[in-house]
Amino acid sequence: MFRLLITYLAQVLLGVVMYFIFRYFSRLYIRRFLRTWSQSWIAFAVYMFCTAILTVLPQATDAPWDRLRLLFSYFAQMGCFLQIVFILLGSHQLVYSKPLSRKLLQWTVVITSFIAMVTVLAYSYNPAAVGERYVLRLGTRSLVSGVGFLVASVIVWVHPKFTRGFGQKLLALSFLVYSVDQFSYLSIIFANVTGSGISLPGSFGLANLVVIALMGISMIMWLLEDEREKLHKANKELDSFLYSTSHDLRAPIASILGLTYLGKLDLHEERAREFMGLIEERVKKLDLIIADILTLSRTKKFEVRQEDINFNHLLEETIVDIKFSKGASSIQLAYDPDPSHIFRSDYHQIKVVLSNLLSNAVKYHNLHQENPFIRVTFDKNVEQEKVIITVEDNGQGIPEASLARIFDMFYRASSTTEGTGLGLYIVKEALSKINGSISVTSTFGKGTCFTVILEHA
Q1: pLDDT in the model for residue 231
Q2: What distance, in Å, lies between the first and last C-alpha atoms of the chain?
Q3: How much is the pLDDT for 18?
Q4: pLDDT tens digit string along 396-434?
Q5: Do 2-236 and 305-455 have matching folds?
Q6: Is the Cβ–Cβ distance between 218 and 173 less than 8 Å?
Q7: 53 φ, ψ (degrees, to nearest 5)
Q8: CA dihedral defined by 274, 275, 279, 284, rounded to 10 degrees?
Q9: Are 123 and 136 in contact (CB under 8 A)?
């Protein structure tokens, strides 16, 4: 009896812990069905606690002990019924995406309380009706739990609102196993009433504990998988929105730039030309932001395609894209081409990385010094399957206080130069898709060095 008592108390503890977990999740994710599921766990904890008390109460027939046993039997019965009721109500909330009315919940508790009272009080004052009391109290618990969890298992398995995945399958299986366990217990109850005298297996309490623990774990696993799926879908929709909106905005911006150019040609008043120049400058900045948003969207949207890349050709193509940038012609590019500079990666992503690093090196350079340069190096470690690319310059450098934040979205270390604050964030996102990393060392006023490491390249 001591071992059985310990397993009951362990299930009480499990029920309380799961109650607080699902209450926390219901507030975190703002999903009402999780609160209802949490109530099923506290009902289960009450059920197990009352069952544990009943195992230690004496079997005396005198009035005080008998009333106490009736009281705990009633709460055990009600806790058992409410456990499955709240699981089914929570599933109903999830499937139909609408909250339960307070009136429905009140009536549910009242009806459940009445049924529990009837099944406990019936035959309670008839000493000869031992079999009837046994069936009504324990048999109805097993019957209600068996049917209820079987229905819950079918709902989880077939309804599309339960996101498909390992957690969903495990949840349906745990409900089914618990249902089978309750039906087997029901068959033992009827066998004992009919005189067969079948005893409970020695592992009864422990098996129940394992199944209930599996149920709790599978509910959490399914919830996390469901939230991940919702987040993935939301991110995909946001990426599509950003891409389509940014793409649609570029056409009118190009028209505005064209009109400002024509306006500057036709206007002869210096003040008007100055205003037109300011408009053009602001529109160009907006165009840069939209271009970076489009690049970021493409970076996240495109699937990674591994291919052999010639770094020499990649660098040449990147230089072509930026050689007409302001100040680029005054900067010397130092790079030693080598036919062996071949590696495997995603061409689009690595070009985005290289283009942004070189553009920044040009944009934030110090053109008033002697010998302004950008040095690019390529090193391949065949044994470790690593490629190390560095982009170094002797430009303005980055203040030490800004180094920790330069890869954050929209963060700009310098307010004196045009920029969107998205370039290095895009670099970090692109590298995360191709198993790469980036680090930076910089001395303010002397220059900066970015180091890109590509694994399995």
Answers
A1: 87
A2: 63
A3: 96
A4: 888 888 888 888 887 777 666 566 778 888 899 889 888
A5: no
A6: yes
A7: -65, -40
A8: 10
A9: yes
Q: For residue 234, what pLDDT is reported?
A: 81
pLDDT at 174: 94
Sheet holding 332-334, edge to edge: 332-334, 373-381, 386-393, 447-455, 436-443
Could you please state the CATH topology (level 3) that the domain comprising 2-236 is classified under.
Rhopdopsin 7-helix transmembrane proteins (1.20.1070)
Structure tokens that stand for 173 in this block: 């299986």
Buried-state track 17-46, b at ≥16 Cβ within 10 A, e below 16: ebbebbbebbeeeebebbbbbbbbbbbbbb
pLDDT at 176: 95
Q: Structural domain boundaries of the chain? A: 2-236, 238-300, 305-455
Q: Which residue has the tokens 């209450």?
A: 23
DSSP letters spanning 147-165: HHHHHHHHHHHH-TTS--S
Rounded Cα–Cα distance for residues 389 and 387 (Å): 7
Looking up tokens 């991940």 gives: 228
167 near 222, Cβ under 8 Å? Answer: yes
The pTM assigned to this predicted structure is 0.65
* Under-50 pLDDT residues of the chain: none
Q: How far apart are CA 337 and CA 318, in angstroms?
A: 14
Quick check: 44 and 7 in contact, CB under 8 A? no
Are 258 and 391 in contact by the 8 Å Cβ rule? The answer is no
Superfamily of domain 305-455: Histidine kinase-like ATPase, C-terminal domain (3.30.565.10)
Helix (H, G, I), strand (E, B) or coil at 394: coil
